[in-house]
Design a protein that fits this description.
65% helix, elongated
Length: 111
């Protein structure tokens, strides 16, 4: 279906399809019409998302600091919150999964 729409419409389309590497799915994406249109990103041990997760956490903590005003900013600077070791622990516990980091931030921000 995607190959047909992409080739017939002349419109540039982007799809993000995420899945476990099930045999049926791998076979479908190995089809010539589809494989020419795809850019696979294999999330195995070669892909290291830890730096991206750390950047995400730093960004989200910066938002938390800004949203709590001057007092919070002064305290977080004095206390170095979160510390580098806190960030490292959160990244390690994420095990390469953004859902963990996202859930932690939702808990912290009470969203």
């Amino acid at each position: 279906m995607i190959a047909g729409v992409a080739s017939e419409s002349g419109i540039y389309l982007s799809f993000l399809i995420a899945s476990r590497p099930e045999l049926v799915i791998r076979r479908a994406f190995n089809d010539k019409a589809i494989s020419q249109l795809c850019i696979p990103l294999i999330l195995d041990n070669k892909y290291n998302p830890d730096k991206d997760i750390e950047t995400y956490l730093q960004s989200e903590f910066a938002v938390v600091k800004r949203s709590h005003g001057t007092l919070s900013s002064e305290l977080s600077n004095k206390l170095n919150w979160p510390s580098e070791s806190d960030l490292k622990i959160l990244v390690q516990r994420s095990s390469g999964q953004f859902i963990y980091a996202s859930t932690v931030m939702k808990y912290i921000t009470n969203d």
